[in-house]
From TrEMBL:
GO biological-process terms attached to the record: microtubule cytoskeleton organization
Region of interest (Disordered), ranges: 492-562
Residue runs in coiled coils: 156-183
Organism taxonomic ancestry: Eukaryota, Viridiplantae, Streptophyta, Embryophyta, Tracheophyta
Name of the protein this chain belongs to: 65-kDa microtubule-associated protein 3
GO molecular function, one term: microtubule binding
Name of the gene encoding the protein in the UniProt record: MAP65-3
Organism of provenance: Acorus calamus
Length: 601
């Protein structure tokens, strides 16, 4: 305790001494005894001691309070630092030396404590703000594991680490909210599109899921249950859309078939183009409003029913049309064409009511499909047949060209004819390869299908076999003619040696045309579908081949000979006998061949 100034102590001593002196004077005047005086002085000392004792106790209590306040402040400061995750503040203790008083120590702690309290309050406010946002997001998202008791500030942990954890949790919830909102909006957009196409009320549909989804100015519910129910509704509407789309496409298919059957005008078809253009559309391609509504489907179904009724009245005409289509398809693919008897029977059955027209029409449709399928399998062979027939035409033309003895004479267009002959010769040279490939492919086709490949009712392999035989016979005939020509030249040379020759302005027999061998006659008709050609005159097999050809070629030789007048009376009989060996031979049997695009008798 600090010492009082000297003048104050002196004044106190003077005051106490003067008062004690004045008390003694009073006691002397009163006549107090010494014992009473001692007693009164003792009382006075006790009262003074009591006052001192009270003052000491008061000072002691004040010291204890100061120490307690310092300890509490230090403890609170340490707790705040620990809660905020900071290092504790180190303070110098008064009892550890240094001469510092308790009040000074307390005065040093209080500002730091106030500062930490303020920081704690600010930190706690940050926690409250973050937790408030988290609680709000949890309430909007409402996950299954949501627990409101978790959203309370823990004063024992106000560290930055904990605050960062809560901020990360808040960011994750904000991202989840954004994802959920996008998902909900996506579902709502899909629902709106489906309701638009199906002709349904969008607002009533979404309000059945949750009332907040039908109001634009209200936040959307984003709970797991809402999202799940939206997905279920979308799947249900998609199934309805697929069913209605299939129904619409079936109706459109039937409508197009009926249009084609009855040759419906384009003006009438144009009214339903919005239906037929979706005949092969996918689910995502149908987006027009009301396209799959019940009213629109009923409208289309009514139109199909009307066309069906109209078809019933035109069934006879439709059957005839489809039958003609089937016949034309068979004719184009060189298949056997049915006779008109079956058609007449079908028409009579329809008119009498004995047969359902739809059944006959369905049978014809099945036949058309079967013919188309078979035509596809015959396509490759038919292409080869066309090449073969074209080559046969070229071969026929080339034979006619080779029999023309004036083919090398210079004239208008002679060079073009020569070029064509070269081209035809190249084509003819390829015919054996074409025939071999055609035989191989046809044989494989017949083996695969277990039936004969017929071309206009005639088996193609038989035609090819006959063509090959005829080609071989023609080749033998050409070799025989070359040999006969050589022998004829030798006979003429021998004749000139025996009888001599006389110049004549007329053409020599070798320069005169020989009669052309026709493969089809003047009245031959072209056949690409098995049509019978006019038959050639039949040869009598009872006569020899030589006797059939002696008269006409012999006449040619007599008319075109350039012999001299002296040789005319010689023995011509011997010459005619020898010359008959040079004439062409005709096969004894009657042949029926398809050659060069012609059917020969």
């Amino acid at each position: 305790m600090s010492k009082l100034p000297g003048d104050q102590i002196l004044q106190m001593e003077t005051t106490c001494g003067s008062l004690l002196y004045e008390l003694q004077i009073i006691w002397d005047e009163v006549g107090e005894s010494d014992s009473d005086r001692d007693k009164m002085l003792l009382e006075l000392e006790q009262e003074c001691l009591e006052v001192y004792r009270r003052k000491v106790d008061l000072a002691s209590r004040c010291r204890a309070q100061l120490r307690q306040a310092i300890a509490d402040s230090e403890a609170e400061l340490a707790a705040i630092c620990s809660a905020m995750g900071e290092r504790p503040v180190l303070l110098r203790k008064s009892d550890q030396g240094g001469g510092g008083s308790l009040k000074a120590e307390l005065n040093a702690i209080v500002p730091q404590l106030e500062e930490m309290r303020k920081r704690k309050y600010d930190r706690r406010s940050q926690f409250l703000e973050v937790l408030e946002h988290i609680q709000k997001l949890y309430a909007e998202i409402a996950p299954v594991n949501y627990n409101p008791s978790m959203m309370v500030v823990d004063d024992s942990d106000l560290s930055l680490r904990r605050l960062e954890e809560l901020q990360k949790q808040l960011q994750a919830l904000q991202k989840e909210k954004a994802d959920r909102l996008n998902k909900v909006l996506g579902h709502l957009s899909s629902l709106n599109s489906l309701c638009l196409v199906l002709g349904m009320d969008f607002k009533c549909t979404v309000e059945e899921v949750h009332p907040s989804l039908g109001e634009s100015d209200r936040s959307k519910n984003m709970s797991n249950d809402t999202i799940e129910r939206l997905g279920i509704v979308i799947e249900r509407l998609r199934e309805i859309k697929m069913q209605r789309m299939q129904k619409l496409q079936d109706l459109a298919t039937v409508m197009v078939e009926l249009w084609n059957l009855m040759d419906t005008p384009m003006e009438e078809q144009q009214m339903f183009r919005s239906v037929t253009r979706h005949i092969a559309a996918s689910e995502d391609e149908i987006t027009e409003a009301g396209t799959l509504s019940i009213d629109f489907l009923n409208y289309v179904e009514a139109e199909v029913s009307r066309l069906e009724e109209l078809k019933e009245g035109k069934m006879k005409e439709l059957v005839l049309k489809k039958k003609a289509e089937l016949q034309e398809l068979r004719r184009r693919t060189h298949m056997v064409v049915e006779t008109d008897g079956a058609m007449e029977y079908a028409i009579e059955a329809i008119e009498s009511g004995a047969v359902d027209p739809g059944c006959i029409l369905e049978q014809i449709e099945d036949q058309i499909s079967s013919v188309k399928e078979e035509a596809f399998s015959r396509k490759e062979i038919l292409e080869k047949v066309e090449k073969w027939l074209a080559g046969c035409e070229e071969e026929s033309w080339l034979e006619e060209y080779n029999r023309d003895e004036n083919r090398y004479n210079a004239g208008r267009g002679a060079h073009l004819t020569l070029k064509r002959a070269e081209k035809a010769r190249a084509t003819v040279n390829k015919l054996p390869v074409i025939v071999d490939a055609l035989v191989s492919r046809t044989t494989a086709w017949e083996r695969e299908r277990g039936t004969e490949f017929k071309y206009d009712g005639i088996r193609l392999l038989s035609m090819l076999e006959e063509y090959t035989i005829l080609r071989q016979e023609k080749e033998q005939e050409r070799r025989r003619q070359r040999d006969q020509k050589k022998l004829q030249g030798q006979l003429i040379a021998e004749h000139e040696v025996l009888y001599g020759s006389k110049p004549s302005p007329s053409k020599t027999p070798s320069a005169k045309k020989v009669p052309r061998m026709s493969t089809g006659g003047a009245n031959r008709r072209l056949s690409l579908g098995g049509t019978m050609l006019q038959p050639l005159p039949k040869f009598d097999s009872s006569h020899s081949t030589r006797s059939n050809h002696v008269s006409q070629p012999g006449k040619k030789l007599d008319e075109g000979s350039a012999l001299s007048a002296g040789t005319r009376g010689l023995d011509v009989t011997l010459f005619q006998k020898r010359s008959t060996l040079l004439l062409p031979q005709v096969p004894r049997k009657q042949m029926r061949l398809f050659y060069g695009g012609h059917l020969l008798q």
